[in-house]
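Reminder to self: tokens first, then the designed residues, so the page reads top to bottom the way the pipeline ran.
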């Protein structure tokens, strides 16, 4: 499997890192065989796979269940698993228990958590100290939707400096990579140039060290695309057409001879 050390080398080599999300075995197997570098079992599965309106209802048990399925389909990619809302924010001991369960029960390579507040920096330090690799996430953090909404972050100078400081603090704490979500491209470029570890952008411009998309968005399966996402195929339309063709075959009136 791809290692964390290789990711840092990719940045040094200016090789872009490809990241997509997965929530089950078939999708994970396809992504892995296609050569994706990192497969993220993102808490976005709460919305794209479970039908919730946000990521907040997702439980740790549900995340582990989906991550186990993903791991069964992966041979080469590094698998990173999101820690759901309120499974790491309360205190360090809760975060250790949650992250430990994820790694022990799924076999994944790392966990991801959102934010760069000082108390979360302490959590990252402790997780890394005990051998749990951590991917950070700054900018638009979906678990803070009740407070931030889905608006682009980092528009004011104060917010720009805060996001930059959070990214630098996460690197110092031992995070091996950081997701930069829905922030101005020039801010993402500044952060990427200042960090030794790779940045993974989503709605943050082309100057990050890699890019991530929610696979349901890429495949055209989502009800509504975020402004920074692109559907590369219309699977919703293809599936609908296939189902309608099947319905026609089933409902077609035919003469059947009965002996």
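Designed residues (259 positions):
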């Amino acid at each position: 499997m791809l290692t964390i050390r290789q990711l840092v080398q990719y940045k040094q080599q200016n090789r872009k890192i490809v990241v997509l999300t997965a929530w089950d075995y078939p999708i994970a197997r396809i992504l892995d065989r296609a050569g994706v570098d990192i497969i993220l079992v993102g808490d976005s599965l709460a919305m794209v796979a479970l039908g919730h309106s946000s990521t907040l209802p997702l439980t740790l048990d549900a995340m582990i269940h989906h991550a186990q399925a993903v791991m069964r389909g992966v041979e080469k990619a590094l698998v990173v698993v999101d820690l759901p809302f309120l499974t790491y924010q309360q205190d360090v001991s809760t975060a250790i228990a949650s992250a430990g369960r994820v790694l022990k029960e799924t076999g994944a390579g790392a966990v991801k958590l959102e934010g760069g507040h000082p108390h979360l920096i302490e959590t990252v330090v402790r997780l890394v100290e005990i051998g749990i690799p951590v991917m950070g996430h700054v900018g638009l953090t979906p678990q803070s939707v009740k407070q931030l909404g889905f608006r682009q972050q980092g528009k004011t100078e104060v917010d720009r400096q805060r996001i930059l400081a959070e990214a630098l603090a996460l690197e110092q704490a031992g995070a091996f990579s950081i997701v930069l979500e829905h922030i101005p491209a020039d801010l993402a470029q500044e952060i990427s140039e200042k960090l030794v570890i790779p940045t993974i952008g989503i709605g943050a411009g082309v100057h990050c060290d890699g890019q991530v998309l929610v696979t349901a968005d890429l495949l055209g399966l989502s009800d509504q695309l975020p402004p920074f996402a692109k559907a590369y195929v219309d699977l919703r339309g293809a599936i609908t057409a296939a189902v309608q063709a099947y319905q026609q075959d089933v409902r077609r009136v035919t003469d059947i001879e009965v002996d």
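The chain has eleven helices and eight strands.
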